[in-house]
User: What shape does this take?
Amino acid sequence: MIENVNILPNTSTEEKIKETARRMFTKKGYAATKTRDIADESGINIALLNYYFRSKENLYELIMIENMQLFIHSIIEILNNKNTTFREKIEILISHYIDMLIKNPDLPMFVFNEINANPQNLIEKLGVNKQILNTYMLQQWQEYLNENKIIIVNPMHLFMNTISLTIFPFAASPMIKNRTGFSTEKFNDLMQERKKLIPEWIFMMIKSQNF
Amino acid sequence: MIENVNILPNTSTEEKIKETARRMFTKKGYAATKTRDIADESGINIALLNYYFRSKENLYELIMIENMQLFIHSIIEILNNKNTTFREKIEILISHYIDMLIKNPDLPMFVFNEINANPQNLIEKLGVNKQILNTYMLQQWQEYLNENKIIIVNPMHLFMNTISLTIFPFAASPMIKNRTGFSTEKFNDLMQERKKLIPEWIFMMIKSQNF
DNA sequence: AATTGATTTAAACAGATTTTTAAAAAATAT
DNA sequence: ATATTTTTTAAAAATCTGTTTAAATCAATT
Assistant: This one.
């Protein structure tokens, strides 16, 4: 009986707790989320949280790792795809992130809070750190620069700009919505528009060579 | 005697507690900051926190409001200055924010966490909400568009881009430092460079009319 | 129907955390 | 110097929070 409990994803108590915990931890962080609140929101007895997950910390780590993996999921494959150009990769990456963030708008704040709290501890344990440095995309980047006779003094700005333009609006969405009165739908439409716009802006920057 | 307690800023017990609280609340948030830790770090008895500030929540609200005001401080004056052009205002705003964020690098995460937690509650109480909509800068913006025959379909993107490019790198700084090995000094140099770069990028975007 | 094991519950526990109290110490005023 | 007020302290009280316990319920198996 114990064997097949986790074979199919069910709407079991265990799953209910985990989903509520994911929502609350992601939204409010570890310290502000109380085990009693998770239990209340899932409609289960407090003891069941410890019965299924042993401890609050255990449950949090589970969610945390899943959130982190969601955040960096499938980047490596995109970066190493031999069938897409440099520009296409940028476009695909941005589009991929915008889709993911529309589905998980609280993820940016969670991830950056977590990185802030754990300077490098767990980021390195996720094992993506050094993989990124040797991707096919980096090769294409060099080729792109050579072909177009572009000299970039500090590519760090480009990297920052890309993630800033893509991710930051989601972190700031409560402020933006509050200031403009936009609904979530209208905000998401705006983000959809950015799939096209951000790559155009980024390549404008590259060509301007302002670094 | 009660009267002049707050007249001159002293290194009194009250001030010590407040400064430690500011640092810890800003870095770790309300729930993760324990009154004992504040007391220990300030080298004072725990009871003194309640003696001077009545409660943890009270103390937090004090810090929170000051942080929020720091974040939006002097914007209005910049926006309404009749002696600067539209472009100069953008440059001054960005330069102002970068200077402020180099001094207070934890502010972005604090502010956005707070806005996330309190959807609109206190943001409106700060009283800056509607002032911004009727600034001299907005007039200049319209004139700028007319003079240069520019039609911007969605100026929201421009607003988002400006704050994204300026503020986001600070929120992401632990990640950036971890991934690049940059020291705080090197990171700050990068931010200083952006004072010139961001306005150039923004005006490139405006002129491209890609909206 | 009885047995077994898994799940759930209410209650209590233990430790952490915030707040209060009452007395001592220090500073200030008379 | 004495009295008064302010500040500080140690201890306790009150509350909150994560975890455990032991019994009850449920589901499946024999």
Summary: The first helix of chain A runs from residue 13 to 32.
